[in-house]
Amino acid sequence: MPMDEDAVAAIYRDHGAALRRFARGAVESDEQAEDIVQEAIIRVWRLAPEPTAGLRAYLYRTVRNLIVDQHRARARRPQAVASIENGFDAAIVGERVDDLLDRVVMEEALMRLTREHRQALVAVHYRRLTVAEAAEELGVPAGTVKSRCFYALKALRTALDELGVER
């Protein structure tokens, strides 16, 4: 099937910057991130069913899979060479890649929240402040902190769905 350059360009225009930020958090260089994004867009264009509301999630899953494939390919190098050169084994690398990708996905999802929702969520759920402590720190009533956390969690679930995270 011939490549529809306009369709590929539209996907790149609409999603390229966000996908690059996502990929850049897990690879060593801007060039690697760009290569992964371009490959993902072409794969999605070739293999995806008709464009749907789930296109963005499909793109993120494809980028994530390409990053994992890239790290696995490096880990398949002969063990002696990897151990001598890098001082670690493939199992540890695989765990670190998964942890890194989880962190990158969560950071991207958190950045999609409003500043107020993100602040409340981080204070209560990550920094483990009580609602009262968070309210004092943020300068808002305790009920507002609870409300912001509730809506932040809903928005976070939506953002993670858009990023292709499966429950």
Brief account:
The chain is mainly alpha-helical and 167 residues long. The protein has two domains: 1-105; 112-167, Arc Repressor Mutant, subunit A, CATH 1.10.10.10. The protein has helices at 5-24, 30-47, 55-75, 79-86, 90-111, 115-126, 131-138, 142-162.
Describe the structure.
The chain has 2 domains: 1-105; 112-167, Winged helix-like DNA-binding domain superfamily/Winged helix DNA-binding domain (Arc Repressor Mutant, subunit A), CATH 1.10.10.10. The protein is mainly alpha-helical and 167 residues long. Mean pLDDT is 80; it is low at 80-84. It has helices at 5-24, 30-47, 55-75, 79-86, 90-111, 115-126, 131-138, 142-162. The radius of gyration is 19 Å and the shape is elongated. The chain contains 8 helices and no strands. This is Sigma-70 family RNA polymerase sigma factor. InterPro entries: RNA_pol_sigma-70-like, RNA_pol_sigma-70_dom, RNA_pol_sigma70_r2, RNA_pol_sigma70_r4, RNA_pol_sigma_r2, RNA_pol_sigma_r3/r4-like, WH-like_DNA-bd_sf. Residues 11-77, 109-157 form the RNA polymerase sigma-70 region domain.
